[in-house]
Amino acid sequence: MNSGRDTVSIETKGVRKTYGERAAVDQVTLQVQKGEFVSLLGPSGCGKTTLLRMLGGLEQPDEGVILLGGRDVTGVPAYGRNSNMIFQQLALFPHMDVFHNIAYGLKVKKTPKAEIKRQVYEMLELVQLGDYSNRAISQLSGGQAQRVAIARALVNRPEVLLLDEPLSALDMQLRLDMQHELKRIQREFGGTFIFVTHDQSEAMNMSDRIGVMRSGKLLQYGTPDEIYENPADHFVAKFIGDTNLINVTVLGSDREVVRVDCFGHTLIVKENRGGSAQPTGTPSVLSLRYEYIRLGAEAEGSVNSFEGTVIESVYGGASIRYTLEITSELRIQATVLHQRGASRYAPGDIVRIGFDPDDALLLSEPEPESNQENRP
Known about the structure:
The protein has eight helices and 20 strands. It is of the alpha+beta class. α4 packs parallel to α5. One of its GO terms (molecular function) is ATP hydrolysis activity. It comes from Paenibacillus amylolyticus. Keywords: ATP-binding, Cell membrane, Membrane, Nucleotide-binding, Translocase, Transport.
């Protein structure tokens, strides 16, 4: 992707926002390219909505710079920026029909009537509501109301559309449908969308890049596959997808692989990605995703292979999740695809477990003892 300055849509440099003694956003530097769909992802209270509000001019940073299209807009209020925002509460006007809701911003700008009509119907076609212009807001489904809100926000052609968890109130199936719709709309409109969510699957499904936040800090910013395959630390590894975080001790390294001790088992894993080599005796954390673990006959021939006892089997339709006890101090979880009619392991079964060095990631930051994920 071209990273030239002319391709940057919105950018922050060292942005910080405090409330009392607490830093809601702490020295965040972020660059979003034109036409990207970027998600700000993290748990409640991590600062993602505060950052979004600063991007939109609804909050002013205490430190740092915000650039929109190369222009410094740090102190510019929302009405002076070419951006729009959609909130959890859509705030559609109940006394206006669909057409007039979408047209509202154009009327405020005193756009000629013929141009208003043209632009509104263009937006209605974009959100696939061409026959709904005269509908009352009360007659719309949740998904239709979402699309009206998107059309109203886009009709003024903003440089950036900011979305603060707009899908969170929808039921699961409608939410999945709207994820596909929102990405289609963004792709066809060609604009820059920045989307706040606490749902990692939502971010993975829609985003070109994801910024993972925690305690006001931007921990990692990259493509979905970069963040999934090479998380910056144990928090990102656990927050994105399902992974076992296992405390290990480094025994030594040789030719890009590391030997680690895992509760009496010697395992071979890849050298720490994105960090320096760890000396012998260093406590570390092994991230081993559920779906990378092989069981039974499939585990034969794996570089790392040992036995475990099935503690629990949870049927999930397309897959089965097993909880396996390796030692009295270590339990892991594994997810395997389920084929109709295939036999399943039962609690008490002894199972061969295997994975290869490329399947695991050695993280340099040890998991705090209070958060040990893999003890019974």
